[in-house]
Structures are given as structure tokens and as C-alpha cells.
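testing teh design pipeline on a random one, pls ignore if ur not involved
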């Protein structure tokens, strides 16, 4: 597993770009173009055949992506530590432990849907910035940016592809 937020982000991108068979990577890229532009790219990229090897490759990538993109709500103690470190970096501790715990809880609730690696990356950006602590909304924007280019959408497309049954002649599932 990746050790740092940067390594996790690179791994997530690499999983959907480099580690899939070329036909699947091309099809994913074409689907992204189609979603962005609202039309099929030319020349049309056919959907990859659902061979056992292709299904296994997609399944492996999906398992790895699920681990990397796991929402941080499933890792609350680690999320709380990251938020507390952010507040500490900006010297926000007022001496009121209950208030600090409430702030961490509020931020934790709002950040729980995002992967921990993206939160850690956004944390580093905030601390290295010249300003004050970012607003929660601004921090969430940075977290989304830190997640990478369309990794969640690619994961969704791969999941859809793997759930569809291959249709043969007369629109029946193949045997």
C-alpha cells in the first residue's frame, strides 16, 4: 500500500491508466471524452470483449482502487488525527478541549466521504500556503482536486463494465 498521499494519488491514476490492458484503457479514455464532449470520439473505440482475462484485470484494478479510494469515514481515528494536525498547524487550540473536539467532529463529518490520501494532500497544501486556515468549503475543494483526474468516474465506469453481461446473438447473455 502507498505510504504517502502523493504515492496514493499516483497509484490511483496509474491503476486506471497504465495497469489495465490497452483496449480497456483506450475505451475508458473514449468514455471520458464522450462524457466531456457529449459525443462519441472518432474513430469509435469499441467496448473491450469480456474475456476471463479482461474481467480478472478489471477486477484486480477495482479491488485496488477501492482500497485507495475508501472513504475516510471508515477510518475515523486516522481522520481525526489529520484534522487535529491541521488545526495545530494553524495554532487554533484555544485551551478548550470540548470546543476542539467539536471542531474536529464537524470537519470529520464533512470530510468523511473523501479518501484519506486526498485529505492528507490537501492538508499539506493548506499548511504550505501563506494564508490562514482555509474554510471548510475551500478545504473540500482542495481535497477534490487532490483526488486526481476523474479517478472516481473511471472506477464507476469499470464497475459498470464488469457488471454488464456480454450480449450475443438475439440479445441474450452468452454462455
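output:
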Amino acid at each position: 500500500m502507498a505510504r504517502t498521499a502523493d504515492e496514493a494519488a499516483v497509484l490511483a491514476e496509474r491503476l486506471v491508466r497504465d495497469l489495465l490492458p490497452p483496449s480497456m484503457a483506450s475505451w475508458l479514455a473514449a468514455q471520458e471524452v464522450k462524457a466531456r464532449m457529449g459525443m462519441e470520439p472518432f474513430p469509435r473505440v469499441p467496448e473491450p470483449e469480456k474475456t476471463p482475462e479482461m474481467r480478472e484485470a478489471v477486477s484486480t484494478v477495482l479491488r485496488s482502487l477501492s482500497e485507495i479510494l475508501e472513504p475516510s469515514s471508515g477510518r475515523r481515528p486516522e481522520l481525526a488525527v489529520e484534522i487535529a494536525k491541521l488545526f495545530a498547524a494553524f495554532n487554533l487550540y484555544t485551551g478548550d478541549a470540548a470546543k476542539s473536539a467539536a471542531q474536529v467532529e464537524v470537519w470529520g463529518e464533512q470530510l468523511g466521504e473523501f479518501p484519506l490520501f486526498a485529505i492528507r494532500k490537501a492538508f499539506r497544501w493548506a499548511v504550505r500556503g501563506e494564508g490562514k486556515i482555509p474554510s471548510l468549503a475551500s478545504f473540500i475543494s482542495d481535497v477534490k482536486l487532490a483526488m486526481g483526474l476523474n479517478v472516481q468516474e473511471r472506477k464507476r465506469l469499470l464497475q459498470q463494465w464488469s457488471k454488464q453481461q456480454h450480449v450475443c446473438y438475439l440479445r441474450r447473455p452468452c454462455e
